[in-house]
Amino acid sequence: MANPFLPNWEYIPDGEPRVFGNRVYLYGSHDLAGSDRFCDYKLKVWSADINDLNNWTCHGDSFHTRMDRDHASDTPWSDKELYAPDVVEKDGKYYLYAYIVHSKGCVAVSDRPEGPFRLVSQYQVPENAEDILKEGIFTDPGVLVDDDGRVYIYCGYLKSYMAEISADNMYEILPHSYKADIIPEDGFFEACSPRKVGDTYYLIYSPKNGNRLDYATSQSPTGPYQYGGTIVDNGVDYPGGNNHGSICQINGQWYIFYHRMTNNTVMSRRACVERIEILPDGSIPQVEMTSLGFEKSLSPYQPTSADVACVLKGGCYITERNVLERSVVQITKGCVIGYKVFDFGEDNSSVTMEFSAKVRGCGNKGKMKILIDDYRSGEEIGACDIGPDNGIVHAVVKSVTGIHAVFFVFDDEYQGYFAEFFKDRPICELESFVFHK
User: Which one, 31, 130, 159, 311, has least CB within 10 Å?
Assistant: First the structure.
C-alpha cells in the first residue's frame, strides 16, 4: 500500500500508531476534504494485521463531541473540535486521551482497542496545581505507561510540559508531578508523543518550523531530554505544513507515521508512513518522504495514482475531485512531480519501453519530460506531448533496469514575445500513469 496508505476518502492526521495483540491501530484526528479548518467533531480508528499492512480496516467512529446521525455526543460540557488523541492499554483496558479545542480534555475507556470509547472523566488536577494544569486542556496529549506501571502524560503548544497520572484511575494528575519545558521552549511547537525503546525514553514532537518531526531522548520518563535530530520533514520538495506522528515497531521493523497536506491548504491531511532505523546508539537517521508506504518498492508496470507523489514543486498540488478520484492540479511551466521509488526489474532485453499517462486537458499545449533518479540532474528517458483535451498521452522511452525514482518536469510550448503572458496557465492535470513493455 503506497503513501498515503489509507483509502482515498479518509483523512487521518496526527497519527498515533499502537500495536495491540496482532494488529496495529492508528489513532488520530479526523480531517475533512477541502476544509478551511483543522479536524472534525469525531474520532475514527483504523487497524491492520501486523502481517498484512496493505489491508486496513475502518472500525468506524470511536468518540464524539457533537451528535451526528448515528451517535450522541460523548462530551456534555463541550462541542468543540477533537484534536490529536492518544490511546494506551492498562490492565486489559484501553484508555483514550482526548484534546478538545479551548475546552477541558478528558479520558475515555473501552474493552477493545478499536473502541467505541465511553467517557470516564475530565482530567482531575490538584487544587494547588499550576495554572496550565488547572485549565485541564492538555494540548495534544501523548501518554506513556512505563514498565513499572506508572503513567505519564506529555502535552503542550509552544511550551511543553508533563505530569504523572494516577495508575489507579488513569485521569487524576498526581500532586507535585508537573514539569515544564521538557523540550526547550525555543525548539518546541506541539505534538508530544512518548515512546520507550529498551531503556531509552523518546519524545517525538513538532519543532518550531512545524514541517518536521524531531525527537529527543532521556534515561528517565521525567527527563531531562536531549535533542536527537529530525526523523522526517514533510516540507522537503513538497507543500509542507504542521506535522504530528510517532514511531512504532511492527514485526521487527521500525516506522515513522506522519501526515501530508492536500487541496493546497495546511488542512485536509492524510496519513503516511516511512521505514526508519534506530541505531545501536539510539539515534534515528533522518529519512526522506517516499511514495512507498509499507512497500519496499513500487511496480512501474502497474498503474500508479498521481496522488502518491512525494515531490511537488512549482505550485502544483494534489486535490480531491470526489471520494474516488484525486489529481495533481495547477501544473504549469517548471512544475515537478516525483515518485520514490520504482523497481524496473533486471530484464535488459529491450532498448525501449512505453509510457502512458491519463491527463485532463486545460486547453493548452505542453510537454512532460520523464527523468529518473533526480529532477535536476537525472537522465531524461523520454517525453510526452500534452494536448488541450482530456485523454491518454503516450511516449516511447528508454528501457531502464533497477530501482529508480521517477520525476515529471513540465514545460509549455509558448515562445516569443508573448510567452511571458502564458507562463502561469495550467498545462494539464495528472491522474495516473504506467510503464509497459
Answer: 130
State the sign of the Cα–Cα–Cα–Cα dihedral 182, 187, 193, 197.
negative
Q: How much is the average pLDDT of 170-197?
A: 94
Provide CB contacts within 8 A for 364, sequence distance 6+: 386, 388, 412, 422, 425, 426, 427, 428
> What sign does the CA torsion over 117, 54, 328, 242 have?
positive
CB 225 within 8 A of CB 216: yes
> pLDDT averaged over the chain?
94
CA separation for the pair 149, 323 (Å, rounded): 43
Give 337-388 pLDDT, tens digit per residue.
999 999 999 988 889 999 999 999 998 889 999 999 999 999 999 999 999 9
Give all domains of the chain, ordered by start, each with its CATH number. 16-276 (2.115.10.20), 304-436 (2.60.120.260)
Alpha-carbon distance of 185 to 205, in angstroms, equals 12
- For residue 354, count CB atoms less than 10 angstroms from its CB and return exposed for 0-12, middle for 13-18, buried for 19 or more: middle
Tell me: pLDDT of 39 over 70.
yes
**Cα distance between residue 171 and residue 375, in whole Å:** 51
* Cell of residue 92, nine digits: 486489559
> Which positions are catalytic?
14, 190
Sign of the four-CA dihedral 102, 107, 108, 114: positive
- Work out the average pLDDT over 83-110: 97
Average pLDDT over residues 10-24: 97
pLDDT band at 417 (very low <50, low <70, confident <90, very high): low
What is the pTM assigned to this prediction?
0.95
